[in-house]
Amino acid sequence: MTAASLEAARPARLDILGWIATTDHKRIGVLYGVTALGFFVVAGILALVMRAELAVPGLQLVGEQTYNGLFTIHGTAMMLLFATPMVAAFSNYLVPLQVGAADMVFPRLNALSYWLFLFGGLIILSGFLVASGPADIGWTGYAPNSTLPYSTTTGTDLWIVGLLLTGVASIFGAVNFVATIITRRAPGMGLLRMPVFCWSILTTSILILYAFPAITAALIMLLLERRFGATFFDPTNGGDPILWQHLFWFFGHPEVYIVALPFFGVIGETIPVFSRKPLFGYRAFVLATVFIGAYSMTVWAHHMFTTGAVNLPFFAATSFIIAVPTGVKFFNWIFTMIGGRLTFPTPMLWSIGFLFTFLFGGITGVMLASPPLDFQFQDTYFVVAHLHNVLVGGSIFAMWAGITFWFPKITGRRLNEVLGKAHFWLWSIGFVITFLPQYQLGADGMPRRYADYPADAGWTQLNMISTAGAFLIALSVLVFIVAVVEALRRPPDAGPDPWEGNSLEWWADSPPGHHNFRTLPPIRTERPVFDARQAARAEATARATASDARDAGPAPAPLTSDEEAAAADGVPRADGPGGT
Ligand code: HEM
Ligand SMILES: [Cu+2]
């Protein structure tokens, strides 16, 4: 056999070394996304075990100590190994494309961020392998529970070290995004012509730079206290356990915006495309984003009302006010749709689902920001319902919108619409069934973080419903996985711009080539690809009119711009951006 025929006989292989050594922002984005979804599946399985345990009173599946480990690792993994790195996945893939750059400013630092995140995550999960079990201190790691002698497992130390690594990864990533957005925008792309997704990432990255050092410091202090004799949180030695709560929530509240703002940005990209209109109030949206980012630094102690150690009116007031810019975004989204020519493919369904579920989560948040209500609901299932309403109903709905929207860009293939819609409806129904009953359970006084509840409390039926919903959510995720596998087995056929998008990523090939762009269109608004498409259509219309005129005598009167737009809508797409 010749070398060439040997080469041909070898089946196509995944370029594993290429992926490991990659510094290409697109590959790093895919690595982040696939890894984060892997952690999502793990954390989801932990959730199913917990929900199965809670379906009926009594301890059937796991003991109390195991349950502590389950909610700790579930909460930690969902927040910091799934939602946060999912933001990094979207921003890695999209920011350089949307600003018209060839890559990030620091590609190697970018790769380092990913590997720190992966190994940090594995270190956290490795707690399941030690004899005493994983961290058992809640995702909030409150002192003194997290100090010795209260949390004796080595799993807690692994949790600390793993979180330190993933935190540093987030900080490196944030530096990279800020630098890329500031220095790598294509000619013509002023800051106010940048897609709202990039604005969200710029804001989020700056927020990371303020918030993550607090948790990094807190984790180092906790490790010193547990293993090296420090007493930061020990009141018998001049320390203060409340200090942990301040450091944690100074990070933790902004963190919930770190996993929300980018997804607001995603919805700011999808709704205009499927409404065939520019985003209503682009500048107000950008201003609201920046305001939420800055202002989210001032509300952290609303998580600490019941400590009796914080100023209630101040933190209640700041928390209420943050609803205002969030409300502005709802106006942006809704007025974009009003009067638009709406279509409802899967990404648009997720976007509209997001509007409903996030609104509900926001309203229950305002309730919890009110100290009298918070004193009542503290540590009950009302809080569990609220936080999942915001995270699952807000961020993760929008995440699915983003995944289904950009899937054709990343893979060159559209997802099957029937499977996509099945995923959406199963998830949505499962979401409501899982989390709505928990508001009632919370109002009835069922406490969170317990593996069991009394049989005579009257909570059994609602718990059973909630558990059934969780399994429906799991089923929907299986449908999504089937849809992805089905799509990847087809040859690529999506073309560069399957949705008729607005921003520059739709100008590049699907998937984009190594350095993204061969050419760029002129950038005169925040919708350069839309502009280029309209220009191409106008030109095609003009050409057609001119040749008609040659055939049929005198030229018709020139179109007004409104007529032109209407005519262009009916014209089949001119040969498109195509990236050439
Ligand atoms: C999708 C289906 C999900 C289900 C069925 C689910 C279920 C649960 C359950 C049973 C608990 C423990 C409640 C308790 O006993 O106190 C919990 C806690 C928690 N979950 Fe989820 N969850 C889901 C998704 C998510 C997502 C997507 C996130 C974040 C992005 C998340 C973040 C959390 C957090 C932060 C906690 C609190 C952990 C703690 O108490 O320390 N969950 N979840
Ligand atoms: Cu908060």
Describe this structure as you would to a colleague.
There is one protein chain. The chain has helices at residues 3-9, 16-20, 25-54, 64-98, 107-125, 154-183, 196-227, 241-258, 261-275, 282-295, 312-321, 323-337, 346-368, 371-377, 381-411, 417-443, 460-489, 528-552, 561-570. The protein has 580 residues and is mainly alpha-helical. It folds into three domains: 22-259, Up-down Bundle (Cytochrome C Oxidase, Chain A); 280-290 and 307-494, Cytochrome C Oxidase, Chain A; 513-580, no CATH class. Helix 4 (64-98) runs parallel beside helix 15 (381-411). The longest helix has 35 residues, at 64-98. Bound molecules: protoporphyrin IX containing FE and copper (II) ion. Protoporphyrin IX containing FE binds next to helix 3, helix 4, helix 15 and helix 17.
